[in-house]
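User: Just a sanity check before I run the rest of the batch. Below are the structure tokens for the first item. I only need the designed sequence back.
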């Protein structure tokens, strides 16, 4: 029986210390900045990205992982004797999964399973880590995929943006388009739902938006049993991220929260949500 490797992409935002020891590899989406094509997390890191974003008159765009990148990754792993579970950003947000499909078709005899997480950022990251924990124990490809399917139902994410302009310009605004033109000083709360970015409500101040975000997460997990994993995600706002995580932990008994994580929004996602974005991803442990 072959070992299983989990392939994911750079939008998962999984902190490096959580990757240690797990069979996870990642392919990078691209940031296109003027004439430059920059691989997310390789050619451009979050710190440099947000610094440049604050001063550059040219605004970046993004591009999916290419089929060629997937071919290289899959080919190497197949040569090393792995079965592959390839878990990626929602197909409703990126064409990355389409590229993976094209690459898989060039290896008709290989054991490759493609998986749409219907998510991104650490809501996706939690799913990837769940499958990787199974793979580390020696589970089969089928067993790892079954865990990933369960994890989709147990993960979610709400987030607050400083502005909808970045989402609007990048074409990922989805149902939140309804908030455009009526924002004034209101802060939009959005949700990753069924693979799309959907509007929840608008709140007048940032602090009230954070409190309301916590209310929404608490309501979502109220009817679930078992431990909870939490991750505060921030776009160049680490103090706000830490404060959100501290508030989130206080909402739940210590016995229920098994993991707390702080994660920085990578350049590709940062292109679409803009600086100052703040989110809370969660997963019920399995």
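Assistant: Here's the designed sequence for the first item:
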């Amino acid at each position: 029986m072959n070992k299983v490797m989990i392939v994911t992409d750079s939008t998962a935002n999984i902190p490096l210390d959580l990757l240690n020891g797990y069979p996870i590899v990642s392919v990078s989406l691209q940031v296109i900045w003027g004439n430059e094509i920059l691989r997310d997390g390789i050619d451009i890191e979050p710190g440099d990205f947000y610094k440049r974003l604050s001063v550059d008159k040219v605004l970046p765009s993004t591009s999916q992982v290419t089929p060629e990148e997937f071919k290289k990754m899959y080919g190497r792993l197949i040569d090393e004797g792995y079965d592959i579970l390839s878990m990626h950003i929602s197909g409703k947000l990126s064409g990355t999964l389409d590229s993976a499909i094209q690459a898989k078709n060039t290896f008709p005899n290989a054991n490759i399973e493609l998986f749409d997480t219907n998510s991104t950022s650490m809501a996706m990251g939690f799913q990837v880590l769940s499958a990787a924990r199974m793979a580390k124990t020696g589970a089969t490809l089928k067993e790892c995929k079954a865990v990933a399917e369960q994890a989709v139902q147990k993960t979610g994410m709400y987030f607050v943006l400083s502005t909808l302009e970045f989402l609007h310009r990048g074409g990922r605004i989805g149902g939140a388009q309804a908030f455009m033109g009526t924002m004034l000083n209101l802060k939009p709360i959005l949700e990753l739902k069924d693979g799309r970015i959907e509007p929840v409500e608008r709140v007048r101040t940032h602090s009230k938006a954070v409190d309301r975000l916590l209310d929404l997460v608490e309501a979502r997990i109220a009817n679930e049993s078992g431990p909870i994993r939490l991750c505060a995600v921030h776009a160049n706002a680490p103090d706000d991220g830490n404060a959100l995580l501290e508030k989130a932990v206080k909402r739940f008994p210590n016995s229920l929260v098994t993991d707390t994580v702080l994660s920085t929004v990578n350049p590709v996602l940062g292109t679409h949500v803009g600086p100052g974005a703040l989110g809370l991803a969660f997963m019920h442990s399995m």
